[in-house]
Amino acid sequence: MKGLESAGSPHWAPPTSIRGVMLHVLLALIPGVLAHWYFFGIGILIQIILAVSFALLFEAAALKLRGRDMRLFLTDLSAPLTAVLFALCLPPLLPWWASMTGMFFAIVVAKHLYGGLGHNPFNPAMVGYAVVLISFPVHATHWLAPAGIAMYTPDFQDVIRAILFQIPPGGMTWDAISEATPLDVIRTGASQGIMIPEIRGDAIFGDFGGRGWEWIANCYALGGLFLLWRKVITWHVPVAMILATIIASSPFWLANPDVHPAPLEHVFTGGLILGAFFIATDPVSGCTTRRGKWIFGIGVGLLTLVIRRWGSFPDGVAFAVLLMNMAAPFIDRHVNPRTFGK
Amino acid sequence: MTAALPEKFGERLWRFPGGLRLRHFKQMACQSAIQRIKPAGLHRVQLDQQCGPEPTFVVEPGQTVLAGEPIARGSDPLSVTLHAPTSGTVVAIEQRPTLHASARPGPCVIIEADGKDHWFSYPKLDQSASRQVLLEALAERGVVGLGGALFPSHAKLGGGDQDSVLILNGAECEPYIACDEMLMRERPEQIVRGAELMLKALGSSRCVIGIEDTMGGVRRTLMDAVKRLGLKALISVVKVPTIYPEGGERQLIKVLTGLEVPSGGLPIDLGLICHNVATAAATHEALANGAACISRVSTVTGPAIEKPGNFEARIGTPLQRLISAAGGMKSDVSRLVIGGPMMGFTVKDTSTGITKAANCVLALDWEETRRKQPQMPCIRCGRCEDVCPASLQPQKLYFFAREENYERMQADDLFDCIECGACAYVCPSHIPLVDYYRHGKAEIKHRREEAIRATRSRQRFEARERRIAAKEQARQQRLESRKKKLNAGGPDGDAVAAAVARAKERKAATKPATKEPEQ
Ligand code: SF4
Ligand code: SF4
């Protein structure tokens, strides 16, 4: 019989693909993006479009230079996912060149210089974000006030002008429209000796986290549950990370609630939920083994707290992830599951 | 050693690590009863259908044989006799491609059926026969593990004792395969009686039949047979969850008993003997009916088969006949697989005869078939690890395989991999992981053999050196002692001196001729 193939087992068509996995993660981000849009305006969409375009451009160039199969790797959706995760960390009016720089470091340096898909020791999105944060500290912290307390929500034209030409919207100054993030507020407040309950009186705070921020976090968590349900991620990292954050911040808060934020505030402000479900779960730069995932998640949670408390950046998730990325290969080497029958 | 076995089976079930829930597609082949395929035309029976040493042919071309007449025998304790599948003439004994993953040629006997199907019968045996008689009869009548392993049944059963527990595996390992389920539905008494005979051959009195929980009604059918035959005290039937690879021996044992067969060990280390339900039925046929094991039920199925079903065919029946019996293959067939979609192997030549291991002939179409390309890089997602029933780290093994670091592969328990294919199936990068493991295992075995061969030849060399040295030493000693004797100065000292002088002279005379050319 001609036409019959011979091949090794298994013979069944596999149920998943890289593209399928990435697509799932992208879909799971939709609620969070929508919430972001609601609270901070259309800027996030523009940032996503920009970052994805830069990412694909750099990805194509890198693939071309490295002589890789363009069609295969350009359509695996890994670069767009990196771009979207990166964009979600940015303030909505970040200038385009900052985004481009970030994407260059994410795609070209963090990903392709290390060997491309599957070989990057560091999470590319977080590398990109860290570069932006360090190189353009002023722009990277120009956050807007969330809907509900904002005096002014920039419209589409404002956003475009701000991103492309750095013209502050509504004829105001940057200082006037930008608003510190809740974590910034806590930080500066604490450094001035203001008590937490008092700081929390600020309109920028919501029920347990930052106003708006907590709802965005809820939406990310929703997406995370979708990923868990679809078995795209396992529960180990998110659970380990959130539990570690809660458990490690509880004693401080119980001992002195005046100077330490409550555990749930830690969880629902900043990028912790996004990080727990979408960033620390990145397979390539994280741990593979089940026990390794536990250690990884706990590490990210603890380091985030440490950086938030003592570091020089208000939110520590990105740096915590990058630090644990460094440890991941080491952790994986030392936690081996017990082989069946041994 | 049986201390840790549960008192009663089925009260509690355990879980094995990893595993997958797969769509199973069994009903596809279960629409009609098992059909018999009449022996006709040429049957190609391969010699290699039992693990252990190959037997040697005891027939010659031109000879006529009866169905069930021995055609090959061995003298090793593990040997199992092979029989003619039907009555007819031995046309040829020659090397032909065999039904094996490698499709390598091997010795086959070609028998042309005479259409009469006259039988050669063995004496019927029953419970009154001694354990030894039953074990010998199993070997002589060709009973091997029909689950696919082809392990000689008499050897397994002979290794147990009165405390051993017989586990009958009725959990079909893979999707599509339905022959065991059909057998349990249609011939429960054969299986139960076979189990009783197996217990007798084992010398024990405890048997549990494990079936999958998706096999509706099978438990009832089997239990009814057990009750009818009055064997309730000996045999129980337990449903286990359908998780791939539940039908794997080690996995089923874990689920039923909570015990793990030690790595590199056998079920018997736990006091367990594991047999397939089809083997139990064959045991009954061979012992109680005196019919050698020359047929089996195979499922012929798959998306590229017109009318899937289960067929009872004699060994050596060409695949083509089974496929035609199932209505033939559709035009979009991609692969023909012997076994299931996860662990089977592909064949191209449909004139190959089936063996006792051929539980399924699966024709896949392109849509259901795994593409060979493209393969993406490993993204370390760990899915492979999550499903591995051996708790290995498939992605690590894969990295070592790519580095050709076979020592690390072995150190990371490569040989505990059962090649179930779960890891490769779930891998989003579509990496053919099992291919790498098979290659690694072959390479390690090859190197081990090379090492053994090298040691052997070194030992041979050293032994030879030693022999030469010993000879030399002995010669020296002889010379010494002779010299001593002479020097000790027999009464005739001069005679010695004269002899020495003579020898010297002789040596001097021959010297030029024997002198080696100097470099
Ligand atoms: S499933 Fe595939 S991609 Fe994922 S870790 Fe295993 S080998 Fe790598
Ligand atoms: S093929 Fe081997 S490594 Fe892969 S899941 Fe099965 S036992 Fe584990």
Name the CATH homologous superfamily of the domain at 12-325 in chain B. Answer: NADH-ubiquinone oxidoreductase 51kDa subunit
Calculate the mean pLDDT score of chain A and round it.
88
CATH topology of the domain at 12-325 in chain B: Rossmann fold
| Distance separating the two termini of chain A | 45 Å
Order of secondary-structure elements of chain A:
HHHHHHHHHHHHHHHHH
What profile does the largest beta sheet of chain A have?
Answer: none
Q: What is the helix content of chain B?
A: 25-40%
Number of helices of chain A: 17
| Uncertain spans of chain B | 512-519
Largest sheet of chain B: 6 strands, mixed
Write a brief structural summary.
The complex is a heterodimer of chains A (342) and B (519). Chain A has 342 residues and is mainly α. Helix content of chain A is 63%, strand content 0%.
Give the arrangement of secondary structure elements.
The complex is a heterodimer of chains A (342) and B (519).
Chain A lengths: L17 H23 L2 H24 L3 H5 L3 H12 L6 H17 L11 H12 L1 H4 L15 H10 L8 H4 L4 H10 L4 H4 L13 H17 L6 H20 L7 H6 L3 H8 L10 H21 L6 H18 L8
Helix pairs in contact in A: 1-4, 1-12, 2-4, 2-5, 4-5, 4-6, 5-6, 6-17, 12-15, 13-15, 13-16, 16-17
Chain B lengths: L34 E2 L5 E5 L9 E2 L6 E2 L4 E4 L8 E2 L4 E10 L7 E9 L17 H10 L12 H6 L6 E6 L8 H8 L1 H15 L4 E6 L5 H11 L6 E6 L8 H9 L14 E5 H12 L6 E7 L7 E6 L4 H7 L7 E6 L6 E3 L12 E6 L17 H5 L6 H9 L3 H6 L10 H5 L6 H55 L5 H22 L5
Bound molecules: iron/sulfur cluster (SF4) (2 copies).
How would you describe this structure to a colleague?
The complex is a heterodimer of chains A (342) and B (519). Chain A is mostly helical and 342 residues long. Chain A has two domains: 17-179, no CATH class; 182-336, no CATH class. Chain A has helices spanning 18-40, 43-66, 70-74, 78-89, 96-112, 124-135, 137-140, 156-165, 174-177, 182-191, 196-199, 213-229, 236-255, 263-268, 272-279, 290-310, 317-334. Chain A is globular and about 70 Å long. Chain A starts with 17 loop residues before the first helix and ends in an 8-residue tail after the last helix. Chain B has 519 residues and is an alpha/beta fold. Chain B has a domain at 12-325: Rossmann fold (3-Layer(aba) Sandwich), CATH 3.40.50. Chain B has 14 helices and 17 strands. In chain B, the strands form four sheets. Chain B has a six-stranded mixed β-sheet, sandwiched between helices. A four-stranded antiparallel β-sheet of chain B has the order 2-8-7-4, with no helix packed on it. The longest helix of chain B has 55 residues, at 433-487. Residues 378-384, 394-395, 398, 426-429, 431, 433 of chain B line the site of one iron/sulfur cluster (SF4). The site of one iron/sulfur cluster has 16 residues of chain B, from α9 and α10.
